[in-house]
Structures are given as structure tokens and as C-alpha cells.
Amino acid sequence: MKITDLIKEDAIDLNVEATKKQEVIRKAVDLMNKNGNINNYEEYLKLVIKREEEGTTGVGEEIAIPHGKGECISAPGLAAMVIPNGVDFESLDGKPVKLLFLIAAPNNKDNVHLEVLSRLSTLLMDEKFRKDLIEARSKEEFLKIIDEAEEEKEDEKKEEKGNYELLGITACPTGIAHTYMAAESLEKMGEELGHPIKIETQGQSGAQNRLTDEEIKKAKAIIIAADVNVDLSRFDGKRVLRTSVSDGIHKPKELIEKGLNAESELPIYQHKETKEENSEKRSKGGNIYRHLMNGVTHMLPFVVGGGILIAISFLLDDYSIDPSNFGMNTPIAAFFKTIGGMAFDFMLLILAGYIAMSIGDRPRTSCWICWWSNS
């Protein structure tokens, strides 16, 4: 499947005029509706807006990639728009957005579209590609630019060879946009500096471009640009630079230079459970404690909030009416005690849910662009 398989000409607008972020989002959803990928317009609009409230999808460099995943989406799809005058999208770099791709992902196990969308994320790291799309004179030209760039990228991958000085892994909590954009940024900078780097992406569709044992053995250093836990056991004895996926996108040159100077700057990673620094993290007791505390941390607001509401109900109630029903004698007291009780009822659900999330090692936090699971 190609990127252009997910977008029709009807879902492209090359001359959008808008002054507000909400206005742009609604127009983008209108285009998605024309693309025929959603079966409930209002529900999908709510999903996109809710995701935006969790954190802007304005990723910088005049790009925004809002998205939504849910039952209201019948098939994966893309909608695209060019906003010549730009619009404030609360982007991470503060720049107005001129190029926007809206993503729709159905809530099912078929992730064939994820690889396609990850390719789009990597292509958008290319300044010339972005500029060509913004300056496209027709929808046909817009789609042709995407097709040609995708084919060129595939040809480059076929020509890649081994013997890398540096290796890396990129991963973000949701496993799409940041993951692949960081990989593209590092690989592109490596080529510019004359030090090719191979990146393994640990995304929603699994690990791709896996690092081999032979490549790891020959590499000077490993760059881990990830916001989730990554198994480092295979890098025992290698110099490892650990940083955020955001640094992988915005500071590739700095990271590569540090990697090349690994012998003088980076510590050697020791994967030994007997070491004090690793014993708590890797022992069964340490893992149980970490998972439990993740649940307790998220449960506390319900405990504290519920307790305060119940205390307020006692404060507002009249004990003389019915001592055995204290806290529920008056309507206002009953209201606060009922809400407080509901908070307590949710307490165990929250505890169990976040313990499961920690064990699954896929925390649902927002990254710039994607959140394909249930965020």
C-alpha cells in the first residue's frame, strides 16, 4: 500500500483560508468526510479535538498532523490541506502551520496503514518535500510529489549497506510519528556528515530495520532516542547514549557527534543484574514495586478527591435528622457523599488499569502526532 492509496483528490485542498486552529480542524474533517473514511462526522471531530487538547499536533516546520482513532472510522485515510497564509496551531516551534495532514485510523487490529503513515512522517522531515507540497499548483501535482518522494526513499533503502559506525533505536509512546521522524532525522544527518547510521524503529507495528549482532559488534556507539523503556541487554559492553525521541528529531547532529566521540564521552553499558544500579530495576521485586507504584500514583487523586468530597458531605449534613444516615440526610450532603463514593469505587479500577499499563510498557501519553491505541 502506498501513501496515495489513502488519499483522494476530493480530500485535498491547496488554498485554505482560516484564522483559527478550530476552524482549520473542522475544514480538515470536512475533507476526510469527502474521502469516505468516517461514518460519524461529529464523533470523529470530537476525537480529533480531544487529541488536540491533550497536546498540539503542530510538530514544527510549518507542519501539523492531527488525527483520531475510533469506531467512527470505517477505513484508514488521509486528508491534506495547504494554508498559504498559515494559521496559529500552537506548534512546538511557534511557527504558523502551512501544511496539514489529517489521519483517520479505524479501531481494529489491521495495522497495514501504520507503515504507510510512518513513511509519510519520515518524508515530511525533508524540507524540499514540504516546500514542493506547499507550492503544488494542482491536486494531481500534489499526489505526484508524494509518489515520487516515496519511490525515491524506497530506492535509497535498497542501496543501503552495512558496516555502520553508529547504530540507534527510536521509540515513542505511541509508536508512529516521533519514532519514524527521529529515525529519518538521524539517518539523514548521518549521511550529511559522512557517517551513515542505521536506526531500528520500535513502533506500533513492531520493530523494523532490526540491528544485527554483527552490526552491534562493529559499531562504535548506540544512540537510544526513546521515551519508553528499551531493552538494552544486547548492547552489553557497548557505549550507549540515551536521550529523548525529541532530541533525535531536533538534535541529530549533536547526538551523532557525541556518538562518534564515544570513547571519551560515553559510559560503557553494563547489563549485569549483580550491579546495584540495575538490581532494583531488573529484579522481580523491583518490577513489582514499579508496576504497583504506577497504579498507586494515578489512583491517589481519586482517593484524595473522594475523601474530601465525603468530608464536605459530613460538614454540610444535619446529624440530628438521622444519625445512622449521617452524610446523606440533606440533598446537598447526599450529593457530595455520592460523588465521593463514586470516586472511591473507581479507585480500584484506576489502580488495576495503570498497573496493567506499566506491565504492558506502553504508557498512553501524547506525542506530537500520533496516538493510535486508546489515548
Topology:
Elements: E1 12-13, H1 21-35, H2 41-54, E2 58-60, E3 63-64, E4 67-70, E5 77-87, E6 97-106, H3 112-123, H4 127-134, H5 139-159, E7 166-171, H6 177-193, E8 197-203, E9 206-208, H7 213-218, E10 221-226, E11 239-243, H8 245-250, H9 252-260, H10 262-265, H11 276-282, H12 284-316, H13 331-360
Parallel strand pairs: 1-5, 3-6, 4-6, 7-8, 7-10, 10-11
Antiparallel strand pairs: 2-3, 5-6, 8-9
Helix pairs in contact: 1-2, 3-6, 4-5, 6-9, 11-12, 12-13
Task: Explain what you see.
- With 375 residues, the protein is α/β, with parallel strands linked by helices.
- The protein has 3 domains: 3-158, Mannitol-specific EII, Chain A, CATH 3.40.930; 160-271, 3-Layer(aba) Sandwich (Rossmann fold); 281-360.
- The protein contains 13 helices and 11 strands.
- It has helices at residues 21-35, 41-54, 112-123, 127-134, 139-159, 177-193, 213-218, 245-250, 252-260, 262-265, 276-282, 284-316, 331-360, and strands at 12-13, 58-60, 63-64, 67-70, 77-87, 97-106, 166-171, 197-203, 206-208, 221-226, 239-243.
- The strands form 2 sheets. Strands 1, 2, 3, 4, 5 and 6 form a 6-stranded mixed sheet that branches.
- α3 packs across α6 (177-193) and α11 packs across α12.
- The longest helix is centred in the last third of the chain and has 33 residues, at 284-316.
- The model is unreliable at 274-282 and 362-375 (pLDDT under 50).
List the keywords.
Mannitol-specific EII, Chain A, alpha/beta, 16% strand, 49% helix, 375 residues, 3 domains, Rossmann fold
